[in-house]
Each structure stands twice: as structure tokens, then as C-alpha cells.
């Protein structure tokens, strides 16, 4: 993997975008005392290099009625079934994250649900996927830290 070279202006642009992905380029240009065209060109360059991959929308899932979070460790019958199981997990909209892992589980995923009954239905659905031998579930009592911004700021300050 090739590391992309970023200069100080790129870092400053990214630092602003980390805090607010919807900020207009004209506002960034005013803060950095550069032209909006320069901001546009630099952002486009970082998108083409794969450093910036779109932008994201942060939702308040509790206000939307999806306050229940569970983590499900999946044991596979055979590791050769990994991709088949992941294909089926992708079809389940309430499975929001899935990782192929080492250690106890073959796959570890995050599930977001309305309540315990809804979570049970989702987890039973995961159990029913061909290739899954069993699952182990942990219920999240509270999501205390969910902040990618701190890591991104740290990474860009290191560069």
C-alpha cells in the first residue's frame, strides 16, 4: 500500500472536514486564506487518491427508535464458508458492521435493533444462515465512545 504525500494545506483542509463534512469549500478557503478553487482541487486530489471516501451522515438512532445494540460473535462450520456467510449478512440491514476475526470467533458483528424482541429475531436469523454453527451475543448497555474524529485528528497531526 502506497502512502500518499500530503502537505500542510491538505492537513488543514482534512482537519476542517473531519469536524464538518458538509462545510462549503468557500468557508474552508476563508479560514485558510486560500481560494475555493484550491480547496476544490485539493479535495478532488485526495478523493482520487482514496484518502477521502465520500462523506458520512451521523444519525441519532435512539431518536429513530433503534437504541438496542448487540455484538454477535459467529462461529462457522468451516472457514471456507466465510464469504458465503458475509454475503448473507450483507442482506440483513440491521447487521451494521462485520469483521473477519482471529481468536474465538470467525466473524464478529454489530447489530442495531429496536428492542430485545427485534434483536432476538435478527440473531436467530444469523443463526439460520447456512455455514453458521452457532453464535454468541453480548448486549451493549451503553455506547460510551463512538468518535472517529479523535483518531483522524491524531493521524493527521502525526503526518
Describe the structure.
The chain is α+β, with helices and mostly antiparallel strands and 159 residues long. The chain has two domains: 8-57, Winged helix-like DNA-binding domain superfamily/Winged helix DNA-binding domain (Arc Repressor Mutant, subunit A, Orthogonal Bundle), CATH 1.10.10.10; 68-140, Alpha-Beta Plaits, CATH 3.30.70. It has six helices and four strands, in the order H-H-H-E-H-E-E-H-E-H. The chain has a four-stranded antiparallel β-sheet, with helices on one face. The longest helix has 13 residues, at 36-48. The protein is elongated.
Core attributes:
159 residues; alpha+beta; Arc Repressor Mutant, subunit A; Alpha-Beta Plaits; 6 helices; 4 strands; elongated
SSE blueprint and pairings:
Elements: H1 8-19, H2 25-32, H3 36-48, E1 68-76, H4 82-90, E2 95-100, E3 107-113, H5 116-127, E4 132-140, H6 148-158
Helix pairs in contact: 1-6, 2-3
Q: Quick check: average pLDDT?
A: 92
Structural class: alpha+beta
Question: What is the CATH topology classification name of the largest domain?
Answer: Alpha-Beta Plaits
The main pleated sheet reads as: 4 strands, antiparallel
Spatial strand order of the main sheet: 2-3-1-4
Question: What is the domain total for the residues?
Answer: 2
How far apart the termini lie comes to 16 Å
- CATH second-level architecture of the largest domain: 2-Layer Sandwich
Which residues form runs of ≥5 with pLDDT under 50?
Answer: none
**Which bin fits the share of residues in helices?**
40-55%
From the spread of the alpha carbons, the general shape counts as elongated
Count of individual helical segments: 6
Order of helices and strands: HHHEHEEHEH
| The first-level CATH class name of the largest domain | Alpha Beta
CATH homology-level superfamily of the largest domain: Lrp/AsnC effector binding domain/regulation of amino acid metabolism (RAM) domain
CA radius of gyration: 20 Å
**Strand tally:** 4
Strand content: 15-25%
